[in-house]
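A common beginner's mistake is to predict each chain separately and then try to dock the pieces by hand. The better habit, illustrated here, is to supply every component at once so that their relative placement is modeled jointly.
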Amino acid sequence: MGAILLLEQCLNGLQLGIMLFLMAAGLTLIFGVMGLINLAHGSLYMIGAFACAAVASWTGSFTLGLVASVVCAAAAGALIEIGVMRRLYQRDHLDQVLATFALILISSEAMRWLFGSYPLYLDVPEVFYGAINLFGVLQYSRYRLFIIVLGLLTALGIYLLINKTRIGMRIRAGAADRQMTAALGINISLIFTLVFALGAALAGFAGALVGSIQSVDIGMGEPVLILAFVVVVIGGIGSIRGALVGAIIVGMVDTLGRGYLPQLLQLILDPVFANTLGAALASIAIYLLMIMILIFKPKGLFPAYG
Amino acid sequence: MKKQLITSMLSAALCLAPQVEASPVKVGMITTLSGGGSGLGVDVRDGFMLAVNNANNSDLEVIIEDDGRKPSLAVQIADKMIQKDKVDILTGIIWSNLAMAVVPSSVNQGILYLSPNAGPSAFAGKNCNKNYFNVAWQNDNLHEAMGSYANGEGHNNSFILAPNYPAGKDALTGYKRFYQGQLSGELYTKLGQTDYAAEIAQIRASGADSVFFFLPGGMGISFMKQYSQAGMTIPLMGPAFSFDQGILQAVGKSALGVRNSSQWNKDLDNAANKTFVADFQSAYGRLPSLYASQGYDTANLILSAMQSTDINDKDAFRAAIKSAQFESVRGDFRFGNNQHPIQDIYVREVVMQGDVLTNKIIGVALKDHQDAYAADCAL
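With all components supplied together, the output reads:
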């Protein structure tokens, strides 16, 4: 039983990590390529979830909902980049934080205005209900398995896009040296809009996938945003590979910490105290991890492009 | 800042009826109308204003402001309402942490505070105050009811979980105060956590025969969806907060059959409740929630005191409030010595009526229940 539970918890950790990766990938790209701190990334996640919930309830199709989440979030991202962000590249980080924080408030109220104060209904399709038998011993949620597979495919897609295509090469060049890239005649502002929309689409996609197992609610993006920032910092700012590794580490540490810390502490401490301490430690485990990593690798695990 | 000023208009009919000249009563409502969790504040406001509009009493003036679920903002609004608007009564706060920030200084300035929701234990025991009334419940009550219900159902191996913050600890304490069986596990989760895969795996492995959870708002929606999607069938129990009319539709069929405790439900058979449910639906076009019922009762309590006494005689007004001479939508309602309710707490089951998920009362969990802190209160 113990080994099966451990295996299940590892899969849960992997699934959480994959979701965090989808959020962190966009954040790290925008951060790395444009040098922009985008606090509104969580709002794009929320927009994706709301779009998916609304379209899925109008049409009855979860697949259409997923498509809508990507399209709406990308459109919102492009709009934000052209309307607001462009004016902020030359300004310092504090101005960017202020402006994107305002965007959080604006988009939260916009969602409330459009969809009301109550959480929306979004459920996974019937096919994904229930558990699937893995390796003959483990009952695992079908939908979570679907998220893992879909997330890994997306990660592969991003890898190919960034490393194997011409546009990816330009994005990498933009991240390495913005002025030089522009001087070589590449339309850097188009690249910026594209990267921003891509990051937004990934966030929206993550929001829709997760929205169907969580609550589609105003302010749902902020807790995830914080985790995504931790992932970005651990992985190394601007590095997609770092985001993937960082996300899986954070997902694993968080899940296994919640699952096992209280029990482990009970071996050496009084049960009641161990429970309280375990719960408290589990909730700060990833931040402790981040501190440790920053002490030994101040630029993160995979510092990007010099 | 959104500010609404609602004054009941003098109607011609009222002018014709000669009445004793009474002093006007000014009520300040501080509640959460924007951002996460605003559904609760909107319901309290709508329930409250329904009673105010039905009463059509021109002596009652209500000022409403949005606290955005921020304690610092709530404190600012309270100061403004007390000093500038000169309110007599404050009400409306949803969250215990906001109430903790606003209530003590307000009641010490002689302002009456009537809580339509939050009931932290700090105000129920030895720090009770003659100016503080709770019209909803003391925080522990609904959890205690579920613990008592679990005994009756023959559950003796419960797995219990709640967020790691004061109200979460009150919840599990409340459950354990009445529950007599063993615990197969006790877990404190992160506040605001949205992924419960690790906890659900533990519940599956623990061999529990029942699960009690207190996860208000989005946390509960996430938990229930993931629980049923994982193919779990161990019966779930919880307080009404995760099964409220507003939230249920977002949970979907995952909530079907779940037992939960509440001091009110829309099918309670009394005249006041029937009027309330019908009026609420015609006024707002949706089913009322627990929170709306609490707002409605709070307004009617104030109106009842205004009929028999004058606000300027503070002692008489307090006594009138404490006597609770109003038709509560809950049926029997009275205040204990600590000015918290003594009331029946029911067990409800989530059912599908037509295509709307809602609750049905299936029994009484605790009759005439009073909170555990009343004895410590010197009032």
